[in-house]
Structure formats: C-alpha cells, structure tokens
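quick one, 384 residues, struct below
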Amino acid sequence: MQIRNKYAVAGIFFGYFIMGLVDVVGISANYVKADFSLSDSVSSFLPLIAFISFAFLAVPSGLLMNRIGRKNSVLVSFIITFIALLIPMSSYTFPAMLTTFALVGIGNTVMQTSINPLLADVVPESRLSSSLTLGQFFRSISSAIGPILVTSIMLLTGNWKDIFPIYAIITIIGIVWLYKAPVTERVVGNHEKSSYLSILQLLKEKHILILFLALFAFVGIDVGMNVYVPEFLQTRCGLPLQKAGLGSSLYFTARIIGSLIGAALLLRYCSKSIYLYTMAAGVIIFAIMMLFPQLYIALTAIFFIGLICANVFSILLSLALQYRPDKANEISGLMIMAVSGGAIIPLLIGIVNDLTGASAGMYVLLICLLFLFLSAVYLRRYNN
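---
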C-alpha cells in the first residue's frame, strides 16, 4: 500500500519535530538550576512538572480524541505549547518557569496521545512501526538541536532564554501546516461507552500492563539521560556545564541515526527481536559506563545508548496499538500515561544524587534498562 496524502503525512511528521521541543526541559533545567542556585532535588521538579501531566491527563486526552477527533486534538496541543513558550519571553522567575514547563507538559501529553493514532490514519498498518520510528526520528532531530541551539545562543547573545521565541515560531508553522492538511480519520470501535475507569481496566490484561510498565521505564531513561548526562559528565569527567550540556545533543544525535536505521530494519525484521537484542546490549554498555567513567568511554557509551533507545518508544507503542486496534484511542491515552515515567524516575535520580553524590542516581537508569530487557524476553515469547 502507498501513502496517498503525503502533505498530511509531512505535516504530522513536523508535529513530531514540535513534540521534541519538550526535551528542552533537560538543558533548561541545568540553566535554571544555576540561575536560581537550586539543589538536585529541587531542580528535578522541573522535569517532574513537565512530565507529571502524562500521569493524569493522558487518559482524558484519549477521551478528548473521541469527542473532537485526532487532528483537532493535535492542534489543541500545538496551541497549548505555543502559549507555554510565550511565558519566559515576558517573565523569568522560578514560578514562571514552573508554569512554562507545566504547560509544555500538558501540550505534549495531548500531542503524544493524539499524534500517533493520527499517523495510523494516514499510513498502511504494515508500515506503522516503521512510520512511528520515522516520527521519532524527527522528534530526535528536534531534541538533538535543542542543546546546540541553547549553547549557540549563549555564545551569540549571552541569554539562553532566546531559544523560546525560535520555538514559538516553529510551533506556529506547525499549527498552520496541520490545519490545512486534509486527513480522513478512521472510525474504530464504539467510543461512546469509554470512560476513565474502563480505560484503566485495560491494565488488567497482562500484555498491556507489561507494555505500559516498559514504556514508563523507557521514558524515565530517555528523560533521565537528557537531564542528568550533563551532570554526569561534570561530576565524573570534569567537564564545565557549557561543554557537558552537549552530552545531551550527542545522545539525541545518536537517536537520530538510530531512528533512521530502525525505520529500515523494522520493515524487514521482527520488532520484538530488535527490542530484545538492543536491550541486552543496552544493559551491558550502561554498566560499562558506570564502572569505567573515563571521558572517552562515557561519550562512546552515551552515543550507543542513544542508538539503542531510538526505536524503543515506537516498538512498544505499535505493539500496544496492534494488540487492540479496536481500542486505538484508549490504548494510546493509556500508553502515553506511562510517559509520566519521565517525571518520576528523574526525581528518584535527583534524590539519590543528593543523598550519595557523584551521580550515583544514574544507577536507577541501569535498573530501568534491566526491566526493559526482562520485558523484551516476555514479549519475544508472547504470541499474539
């Protein structure tokens, strides 16, 4: 099957690029921490504020899709994001930044819940895993250039907050593009009877529960790497913040490359097998990074972990959507609820760092990788 509406597909992929703007929270948290002299525990509330909305609003976002449609839900998410980006342009206080990150999180919750099913409306089912991975490729580009843009802006203007007007303009482009893109949404299932409780009850199915917990752990790894790689490079490798912040860009650059590789591999090989082998490699590489924290080892490990993590989100999400296609909106909301792992796990890392020092909280991410490996073993044995 061929993709018939390439303009709509391109607009949706641009939406994935906007989705990646949320990862500016990682490098921003480090600058806000320095500007307001915050501890690790307090500064970890920035990603907490940004990602905690996934725990409470993802399922309602799925219900919102049932009411106003997937495309309109994505447009609403773009508008919320745009409003969030305006705040630092007029006020730079700690409460203002908390508000900004909260609104970015809310917008991203609605966006991630609705944009994946919307993509499923415009691509053949046989290409869904690969298309979702390609969407993550565009998100990774956005995530990778964020720290580079912030560093460049600091060198040019001395004010890292000048990143927000740039992101606001990008978001406006996305709003206009998707608004004009014609999309015919598929109607599946009987959504009128769906409720918050009925969606949560999907977790009673073991397969869905495993996928949910795996996605929770993975997003915790993804955000934890984004937020704490700079500190790890500072405390373990002695790099200054301006250079250490580029460690996040290295991670997301690897994700860009990994997404391209994954989009091709997922067209030819079983996604469950790819997931299993990459998670096994991830555990080994991360353990080496923690045990031998020399700079060249750390940078090499960060790059390979980025490669390994590039396709996890799309694999888990596609497996969930394909497991119950009659409940695509509801399962999408449920799975995006798991993105709240990006709030909880970095908070745990910050607490462990404050208690032990020397970036020991990064071992939390190793535990998450171990769980992902175990979930991959289960999914490989599971025959749907």
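The chain has a mean pLDDT of 84.
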